[in-house]
Amino acid sequence: MADCYGKFRASLKSNESKPKIGLTKQTWLDTPFIIRGKYEGIPVWYYILVSFDKIKHIKSQPIGKTLNSIEFGNIIQYRDDQQRICSMFGWGINPSKSLKTWFEQNYDDGTIDETINIKYEKDDIRLCTIQHLRFDELIGINQFYHKKDHFHYIRLSTDSQTSLAYRSGMRNFDRLISFNGINIEQETPEKIAERFKKECYRPIQILVCSPATYQHYKLNNINIHANLSTVQFLEPAFDLSLSNLEISTPLNISMREKFVVVQTETNNFICTVTESSDLRHVNDIYLIKNQGKFHREQIKFKGQLCSQDQCEHFRCHLIHQFHNENTDRILDYNKSIFEINQHTRIPSEKNILVEITRFEDLPNEIIFDILNYLTLEHTHCSFIDLNSRLSSLIRSSNNLTLIFDEKLDRLLMESYKFQLVHLIIDTSNECDLAQFFNLHSLIIYNRNLNHITQIRPKTLPNLVNLLFLLKSDFKVPVELIDDIFSNRFPYIRYVNLGHIDKPFIKSWSITYSLEILFIRCDQLMIIENILEASPNLKHFQIHILNNFNNIHICSSSFKHQLKRFTLWSGDIELKLNQIDALLTYIPYVTHLYVQTTCQIPFIEIAKNIIYRLHFLSQFDCFIKEILTKNERISDLDDIHKISSLFHRIECVVENDKFRIFATE
């Protein structure tokens, strides 16, 4: 009998439909459900996709009720290996393992539930900060990836409102945007999980948004980032609190209990906190909540005490020590903790185990700052494998710099490519920029057309700084110019482009992120286009390569809010009307530097500057005035009399043919 049953089961399995292509399309609003029941007394199951507006309805159905699947959604259909259209339906309690595996590979879990508002009303973007200090405390989220629409989202792993995730402001089905300042939308789920695992040594910041906000931004092709004005910067969640301590009375610290002495950064109030973790180090900075307010605290000491009195004496000693250094730094909140005076007795520290600060005892923030000054090669060779903490810090750093040159260790680059933020290319060797998806800064010293053509928004979507430090004959590709000034690099802030030689075409859209721009050019019209396309530009440096081939006095009402302007022409002569045309666009400049050659009296340029720039607060120059002695109409005193801004100008060279005026 058993043998017959086995043959019958094998026969059913051999005839089982094998899915090949899914025919029922799933959107982010659809949630899959497996419905189990009985048909004429025989167990059956089937998969359906339930739309958002019916999720609550289907969940409310009582067990045993007769259901019509059409009322709730569509049965999932597929085309099998024999080109037949089949439904995800079968006899029994559960689907076969092969069908279940195919379903999980081709359909996603629900990314919303009945509690989510899918109607966009206003931005709901939150920067959530977690002061994660202990290995044994979980953040409290599960991470998911929607394969069809390619986005990451979270679900809280517990309903408790005490979890770090909930207290930091994260909610069920929030979309993940960035992690510690790095956009992670295009990363794999495995890579994101690795980031969470590595960041146990320091606070983390996660940018999330609601499903409705995410869909609104994606439909309008707008990138979400932390610099948007609508971002909510929420209070950090922490796992070290003084909120239950009475700071007006001595702390109760038991015999031989470990403790840390902390001091606020703002008012230097000193108190002691019991501490069981060995992860904290002297001078580390942490967020502490005290009496309902957040304070940044620095650990001044850690060790063990032999008595409660020593805790108070040691704290008193620290306050006395800080008092002698700077009396104003001590603030006694209620004048009942300690009385500070010159007669305070310094207690003996015989029984207090004092730690000597070593390099590895420095706070994480300082170590990360030190690493920022080093290249990846130096960091890896100097610190890796010295101890587990330094190794972990290096491997979790998200601000590494790589010099791509002839001596590059490609294996080392491959190991850290997802953590590289700054890249300096100083070789003509081939380099695939697509592997550095998180790149923020790119500096190119060596001309290679393949390097330059790879600089596109899809390849480097997080680019912030772009510098071409090449010879003056280098010309930027027109496609790259269009990308920069058409907001296709949404985070770009600092650009040194080199020579721009683009004809006048009014096709640029506005780029809001660009703040600093250095260019070489010989067309005044390009300068006008750049200013119109970059409303938030703060510092603009122009190097004139040739006499302007056209001059155009601004007749429109367009005025830019630029604050710092550098005009450099070297030996190229600039005429007064050319300088005046440029200044017409930028009347709000506060800092101006001019380096040029002219065949007009310098005093005329000085008068024009004062006439155009009413908000100017600093002027610097190096101007060569090519006039003979007989042609000169003023001296240095006349220039100083125009404005106090010119008092720093000196005549550094003077002969029969020319004069050079320069600031100190």
TrEMBL record:
Location of the F-box domain: 356-411
Classification via InterPro entries: F-box_dom (IPR001810), PDZ_sf (IPR036034)
Name of this protein: F-box domain-containing protein
Record organism: Rotaria magnacalcarata
Source organism phylogeny: Eukaryota, Metazoa, Spiralia, Gnathifera, Rotifera
